[in-house]
């Protein structure tokens, strides 16, 4: 996976063994990829979108990301973050293996001409799916005004009040969301979606609450919109859809 824009591609046996053991990657024919996103000064870059073969990951506040269930062979990793130069990396992925890398993004300052927009009109276009799902009446829906009325600091604080959802802590101490109304009564993690794209590995508090415009929560498979009933995920455990805010 040689690329001059990608540094510190180190194989870490101990860390990798833990990842393989916990995720079951070694027993599958798929591959995985994990690492960090940083800028040229070495600072972590959060909320970077990393896409490979229709699998999406969002870097957390420390720049970390994890992509699982990837097809093997040659692939292209697309990295996008507002304010940074887009990056495309060609990779070779191997079955049953998780590789790590550090992605370095270059800040891209731009002088943009002034424009006049109506934020409410833009929001209506971006959130058309949210309003359509809400009209169906199945699930729990909160827009920006309703989120602010909760007077909470994190998305996990909202989830504590949703029937059928519970929170635990993962090994890193992060809030881990579980659904108790899934198919067969299992207690399992719901699928996470952001702006209409499935985001496996996304933690419930990886997106700052101030960046959330609306959220939809489905405790089980009932009522999950067809476009989010993905065969690549596990909608039987429920689905959480996060819609991010427009700038300004």
Descriptive tags:
248 residues; alpha+beta; five-stranded mixed beta sheet; 16% helix; 15 strands; disordered N terminus; Immunoglobulin-like; Ferric Hydroxamate Uptake Protein, Chain A, domain 1; four-stranded mixed beta sheet
| CATH topology label of the largest domain | Ferric Hydroxamate Uptake Protein, Chain A, domain 1
Report how far the terminal alpha carbons are from each other: 39 Å
The order of strands across the largest sheet is: 9-14-15-12-13
| CATH H-level superfamily title of the largest domain | TonB-dependent receptor, plug domain
Radius of gyration: 19 Å
What proportion of the residues is helical, as a percent range? 10-25%
- What is the second-level CATH architecture of the largest domain? Beta Complex
Percent of sequence in beta strands: 25-35%
Order of helices and strands: EHEEEEEEEHHEHHEEEEEE
Number of helices: 5
Structurally, the number of domains stands at 2
Indicate the low-confidence ranges by residue numbers: 1-26
Mean pLDDT: 79
How does this structure look, described?
Helix content is 16%, strand content 33%. It has helices at 13-23, 119-126, 128-136, 144-149, 155-159; strands spanning 6-7, 31-39, 49-52, 55-58, 64-70, 73-80, 87-93, 98-105, 140-143, 165-169, 175-179, 191-194, 197-198, 212-218, 239-244. Residues 1-26 have low confidence and may be disordered. Strands 9-14-15-12-13 form a 5-stranded mixed sheet. A 4-stranded mixed sheet has the order 1-8-2-5, covered by helices on one side. The protein is built from 5 helices and 15 strands. It has 248 residues and is an alpha+beta fold.
